[in-house]
Each structure stands twice: as C-alpha cells, then as structure tokens.
C-alpha cells in the first residue's frame, strides 16, 4: 500500500469497494434463509422496498465494528444498516437492524452508529425511520453497551429530543423487540408492527422466572395484543411488504413544502476537471506533491472558484465556490511547496502561522455571510521550530481552532490524504462537529506519520530495554522496529478509523462531488432550535 503510481489509489479504491460489497452481505446466506423461513425480508431488502430508488441509498457507517469484536466473530456493519434515501421526494434517515447478524443484537458500535444517525437526522432536520428487528443487547459486552453517555440509553434520550424538536420519527417492529430496546419504537411518533413480531420488556422465560407467570409470546407482546389490548401500536400490518407500503404512505402525508428536498443539485453544472482526474493527482503514500487547486477543480462548479487571500498563507487554500449550485467556503491543505515573501519556501501539507491566521479569518467571514464550509484535509500538522514559535504559531493555531469550534454554519470534512496531529483538529476533525465526515481510501488518521511514530516508539522501547540491561543484535533491532511500524500502520489505515465511527463513510475519490452535493442538500436544512416540550408521548 505504499505504491505511489497514479493507478495506486484506484486499485486501493477497488479493494475497498470489494470489501464493502462483502460487508453488505451481512450475516450471509444462512441468516438470509432464516429471515425467509420466518416470512420476513432482510434489512437491505426492506430499505430497497421503502425508498424511491435503491441505487440512490446514501449509506453511512458501513465499516462500523469491522474486526473489533474477534471473540464474537464477524459483526458486519455493527448489525445495523443506516443511511439516507428519499421517500416520495422527502429525504429520510433509515435505521434498520440486520437480524442476519447475531440476531440484530446491539454491540457497543451498534449504539454509537444509531446515535450518530440520530444526530445527522436532527442536524439535517429530516425524518428518521427505524425498522426494528433485534434480540436486544449483546449480553457478553453489556458493560460496554449499557451505562455510559454514548451508550444504549442515549438512543432513547435522542428519541425524545427529536420528537420535541418536531422531527418525524416512525418505527416499525418487524421481528423481535425485546427488553430495554422496546423503548425506542414506543418513543416515536408513529408505531407499526407486523404479525408474528414481538414487543415486550421480558420474554416468556424471564417472566416465568421472575414472577412465576406462564404466558405465550403472542399473548405477552404480539401485534394483536398491542393493537387491541395495550393500544401501544398505531398500525398492525400482516406482512413486511404491507408495513413498508404503510410507512411510504405516512411519509407522503408530510407537507412537501416543509419536507421535500432535492439531493441531486443543479444538473447542468459541470466541473473544470473530470472527477476521474482525482486518481492521478493524489498518491497513496502521501509523498507526492500536488496543487490542491486541481482537486478543487474536479469538485466545484466550473468558473465559480474565487480564491480568498491567494498570495498569503499559501499552505492553506481558502476559496468561495459553488458545488452543484450550493454556495460554499472551501478550506484545503495545499500539498506543494510554496514561496512566501516573508518565510521563503514553505512545505506543503504543513500549517504555518500565516495560513492558520488566514484560515481563521476565512471561517469567520463564512459565518458572517452564512456560507457552509467544506474542509479538504491532507495535513501533517502545524509547523514546529524556533522561527515558527517566534512567529506565534500556537497563538495563530489557537485562533483557527477557536474560530472553527464556534462556527455555526454547516461544516463538511473530506480527508483526502493525511489527517495528522493538531492539523486534523484545525481542519475540522471529528471532535469539531462536522455535519458529515468522509475519507478517501488512502486517508490516514494518527497523531503523526507511521515512520515518525514507529521511530519514536521504537526508541522508547529500546531505551527501556537498555536500562534493564537487555542488549539487541542488529536483526532483533530491525525485527522489533518493523513490528512496531506495522502495528502503527494498521491503526492509521482509514478502515480502522471507520470501524470506530471516526468517519461517516469511505468514499471513492471520483464520487466526492456527488457526495458533497447530497451532504450540502441535507446540511443546509434548518436545524431545530431547542425549546422545552415533550412532543408526542404515549399515554
């Protein structure tokens, strides 16, 4: 993965796309066959039937939990499918438990993925639909799922906040809905349930063990009982298909003037460079110099880019532009060497005091005019050394971080190369609340690059061993160094970060423009303002 030829990123992209196709298989043929025997559709079949165009499903968090739970086996996509699709022209965020994966059980990353989906729905002001089919919490990991701020309970808290904000929430129980998970659908505005599904806090076995009562599943929490006796559900449907058709009809009742939104941008707008040219600009290993303006030219509408302070702070490019007709401000790391009037040669990918100062001013200007911000990250961090410190790099860097942290306009980040150190923070990393965060397959996440980090870690290990009287021969030293480096390389791989929810999706470079158009269409929706009331409450 260190080949720097023009075809290397395309080859890596093909590798990632093949892995993603495997992830979409979920629990495999056995799980799909089980759903079929039960007369149920799979999660992805449900989504395909629900939305207007299955090919336009904008999936998020596909890599969640990848290789994270070896003791439990594979947990593709964290056992839940999440993404955005249009229903009668109204963009909706859909969360569907995948019962082919561990019976749809909740793992730690399942919770975090659903919470992220709820956040996106809230910030984008779009309806959210839950297709529930889950056996509940994965009990061997209950300590990592149950108690913390961003664990299981946060989902129910978000249900309540979304409802109070007026964001439509529809839940459909299309299989199991057991224990604490039962609160999710009941906290939604509308609740559907299919025949043969179950909704209860405790199953028959637990009820018998707890209070000695013998009751069958249907009488305890079947669709007929909840429709006729408890009154918990609003619609009882005979099949998955009928249930999904009902959801579509309910979404169609939402006023078009408030909820309908195009996700495709202006069709006639074109780019100066072909999006396919992106594969020839950037390298896999990040060592190739390039002009980030060439990247921008393959993303923005032709003839719309206006560079801000083009001759000052040149290691960061700031510019106004349009993407699919959406006006934006762009902040991008410049990866070629530039000539400064005051500093001489400045290294590409490094944020100097003047580029930090310029970027901060630009972020403030975009907030003044209400322009969304798009960050293109490929940074090795801030400049270090005596001259940089004398120039006030810490002060200027803090200025940028402050301006960006307090930005109120939508921010969208695309990691197109390195996302290292404080450079990641300054360019709107995950901790700074981007509405969406995407990454190319070649992206790297870490405090510093693999060579620098592995060298530092190796020196620490070597010195510690020497203090304890251990001597290394040359072969042993080289083997240890390589082991340290490989471990670090694995952690910097974008798939490692995607598994942990640090990014919303790994995207093919040539799709960047389309992804940004969709994201901007969603991000420019008016975020609800907090006001206290309970929303729809089951009584």
What report would you give on this structure?
By secondary structure, this protein is α/β, with parallel strands linked by helices. It is 39% helix and 19% strand. It folds into three domains: 252 residues, 2-enoyl-CoA Hydratase, Chain A, domain 1; 190 residues, Alpha-Beta Complex (2-enoyl-CoA Hydratase, Chain A, domain 1); 44 residues, no CATH class. Helix 4 runs parallel beside helix 5 and helix 18 crosses helix 19.
Helix-strand layout with pairing:
Elements (H helix, E strand, L loop, with lengths): L7 H16 L5 H9 L5 H8 L7 E3 L19 E8 L2 E8 L10 H17 L3 E7 L17 H13 L4 E10 L4 H4 L3 E5 L3 E3 L3 H8 L5 H5 L1 H6 L6 E3 L2 H13 L3 H4 L18 H4 L10 H6 L8 E3 L7 E8 L2 E8 L4 E3 L3 E3 L3 E2 L1 H17 L3 E7 L1 E2 L3 H5 L2 H13 L5 E10 H6 L9 E4 L4 E3 L3 H18 L6 H19 L1 H6 L5 E2 L5 H12 L16
Parallel strand pairs: 3-4, 4-5, 5-6, 5-7, 6-8, 11-15, 14-16, 15-17, 17-18, 17-19, 18-20
Antiparallel strand pairs: 1-2, 2-3, 9-10, 10-11, 12-13
Helix pairs in contact: 4-5, 14-16, 18-19
Summary?
Helices cover 39% and strands 19% of the residues.
């Amino acid at each position: 993965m260190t080949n720097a030829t023009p075809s290397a990123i395309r080859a890596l992209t093909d590798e990632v796309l093949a892995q993603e196709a495997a992830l979409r298989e979920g629990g495999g043929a056995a799980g799909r066959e089980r759903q079929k025997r039960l007369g149920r559709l799979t999660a992805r079949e449900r989504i395909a039937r629900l939305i207007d165009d299955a090919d336009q499903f904008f999936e998020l968090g596909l890599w969640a939990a990848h290789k994270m739970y070896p003791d439990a086996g594979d947990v593709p996509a964290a056992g839940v499918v999440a993404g955005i699709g249009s229903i009668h022209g109204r963009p909706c965020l859909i969360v569907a438990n995948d019962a082919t994966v561990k019976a749809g059980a909740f793992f730690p990353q399942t919770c975090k993925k659903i919470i992220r989906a709820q956040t996106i729905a809230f910030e984008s002001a779009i309806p959210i639909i839950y297709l529930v089919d889950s056996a509940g919490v994965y009990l061997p990991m209950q300590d990592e799922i149950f108690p913390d701020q961003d664990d299981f309970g946060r989902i129910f808290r978000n249900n309540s906040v979304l409802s109070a904000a007026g964001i439509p929430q529809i839940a459909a129980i299309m299989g199991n809905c057991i224990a604490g998970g039962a609160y999710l659908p009941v906290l939604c505005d509308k609740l559907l349930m299919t025949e043969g599904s179950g909704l209860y806090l405790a199953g028959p076995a637990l009820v018998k063990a707890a209070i000695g009562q013998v009751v069958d599943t249907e009488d305890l929490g079947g669709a007929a009982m909840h429709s006729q006796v408890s009154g918990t559900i609003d619609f009882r449907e005979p099949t998955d298909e009928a249930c999904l058709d009902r959801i579509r009809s309910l979404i169609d009742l939402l006023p078009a003037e408030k909820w309908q939104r195009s996700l495709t941008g202006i069709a006639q707008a074109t780019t100066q460079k072909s999006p396919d040219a992106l594969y020839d600009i950037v390298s896999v290993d990040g060592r190739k110099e390039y002009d980030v303006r060439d990247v921008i030219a393959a993303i923005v509408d032709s003839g719309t880019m206006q560079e801000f302070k083009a001759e000052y702070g040149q290691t960061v490019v700031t510019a106004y532009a349009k993407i699919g007709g959406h006006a934006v401000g762009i902040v991008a790391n410049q990866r070629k060497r530039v000539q400064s009037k005051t500093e001489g040669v400045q290294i590409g990918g490094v944020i100097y005091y003047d580029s930090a100062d310029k970027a901060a001013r630009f972020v403030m200007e975009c907030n003044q005019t209400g322009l969304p911000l798009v960050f293109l990250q490929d940074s090795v961090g801030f400049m270090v050394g005596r001259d940089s410190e004398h120039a006030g790099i810490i002060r200027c860097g803090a200025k940028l971080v402050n301006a960006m942290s307090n930005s109120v306009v939508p921010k969208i980040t695309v990691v197109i190369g390195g996302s290292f150190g404080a450079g990641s923070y300054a360019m709107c990393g995950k901790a700074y609340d981007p509405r969406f965060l995407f990454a190319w397959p070649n992206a790297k996440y870490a405090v510093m690059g693999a060579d620098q980090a592995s060298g530092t870690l190796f020196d620490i290990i070597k010195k510690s061993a020497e203090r304890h009287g251990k001597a290394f021969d040359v072969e042993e030293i080289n083997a240890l160094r390589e082991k340290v480096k490989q471990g670090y390389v694995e952690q910097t791989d974008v798939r490692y970060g995607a598994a942990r929810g640090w990014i919303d999706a790994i995207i093919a470079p040539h799709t960047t423009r389309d992804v940004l158009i969709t994201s901007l269409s969603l991000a420019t929706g008016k975020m609800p303002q907090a006001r206290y009331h309970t929303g729809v409450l089951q009584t």
